[in-house]
Write a structure and sequence with these properties.
Shape: globular
Structural class: mainly alpha
Largest sheet: none
Helix content: 55-70%
Number of strands: 0
Radius of gyration: 23 Å
């Protein structure tokens, strides 16, 4: 029985330029999700199969996953333990935090299983978890955007039972769709049997990643349109208040409204900056492209799950109060007395 060459588990598919001299692709066992697979230059041939070289990019992704999981676990814990945080807005923020928490755990589990278990089944399960959780995260962002639009457009009836029912419906749909997307690799939609169909993220197929990327672009376009409408509503409300109180343009109402619009721009800009590079790259590239490019675009995408709690949870006044109660058992006067402004949209 011939001796098997040591492998480097990683997120991406094989890159022949990383192989040592004379090491063909046929002697490499692929065990990972996106990919750097083979022996780096200078690695001694004939090494023990137990010897593993850890890809630094995989360490970065695992570290990001750990931070994501810890940060979002705090948000989930606060919302779960506080009965006052049961409004539709907080349910959607909790859904976002739960999705990002699972995404972080998926990144950590994939790193662990890739370097310890090294089986196709574990690879498919962890990749499915990552796909499902990141999909749920993006869908939750869309749901939060829809909720913010409805809370402004139907301000008088927003807190009705109809709004709660609509929120639960959105949650069921987004998690159901995300689960279906995550199950695709496990149920056979993968490239383990045919390497030529692989995308930049192994074992997802090129068609699978293309569908995910196009869906993201459509969701981003819808979010952009909703945020434009939100800005118009906020500006109109501020203008009406200014007319009623005979305020001039430079009053606090104008300042806070402008701040609110800037906040919306930051939210949408951050989302696009994190996900757009990977989305565009995955549409134009395939498994033959250098893994370095995939890592360089995928790592920023994971940072969106690090930023989400800061934007959507920790800035919220009610969640801030709950955090202060958990941490020190009191609420600072500056937090308790802060009024809601258009910048909180």
């Amino acid at each position: 029985m011939s001796e098997e060459a040591p492998v480097t588990p990683s997120w991406f598919g094989p890159d022949s330029t990383w192989a040592s001299g004379g090491g063909g692709m046929e002697n490499v066992t692929m065990v990972a999700f996106p990919s750097a697979p083979v022996l780096p230059p200078g690695y001694p041939p004939g090494g023990s199969s137990s010897e593993l070289l850890v890809n630094p990019w995989d360490i970065v992704l695992c570290s990001s996953g750990t931070l994501i999981a810890c940060e979002n676990a705090l948000v989930v814990l606060v919302i779960w333990q506080n009965p006052a945080l049961r409004a539709p807005m907080f349910l959607l923020i909790g859904s976002l935090a739960l999705a990002d928490l699972l995404a972080g755990l998926g990144l950590v589990l994939h790193f662990t299983f890739a370097y310890l278990l090294r089986s196709d089944s574990a690879q498919l399960l962890t990749v499915g978890l990552v796909v499902a959780s990141f999909s749920a995260s993006v869908f939750s962002l869309l749901a939060i955007t829809i909720d913010r639009y409805l809370s402004l457009y139907y301000a008088l009836t927003y807190n009705s039972e109809r709004t709660a029912a609509f929120t639960y419906t959105m949650l069921v749909l987004l998690w159901g769709l995300s689960l279906c997307l995550g199950l695709l690799p496990v149920t056979g939609v993968n490239c383990l049997g045919e390497e030529s169909t692989c995308s930049v993220v192994r074992p997802l197929t090129k068609n699978n990643v293309a569908v995910l990327s196009v869906s993201f672009l459509l969701l981003f376009g819808l979010m952009l349109q909703l945020y434009v409408q939100i800005c118009k509503i906020v500006m109109r409300h501020a203008h009406q208040i200014a007319l009623q109180h005979h305020f001039l343009a430079a009053t606090p109402h104008y300042v806070t409204t402008r701040k609110g619009v800037s906040t919306l721009a930051i939210i949408l800009g951050t989302f696009a900056a994190c996900w757009m590079p990977f989305t565009v790259y995955s549409l134009i590239a395939d498994y033959t492209y250098p893994p370095l490019y995939t890592y360089a675009t995928l790592v920023p995408a994971t940072y969106n799950s690090v930023i989400n709690p800061v934007i959507y949870a920790f800035r919220n006044q009610e969640i801030q109060k709950a955090l202060w109660l958990i941490c020190c058992g009191c609420i600072p006067a500056s937090v308790a007395q802060r009024a809601r402004t258009p910048s909180d949209v």
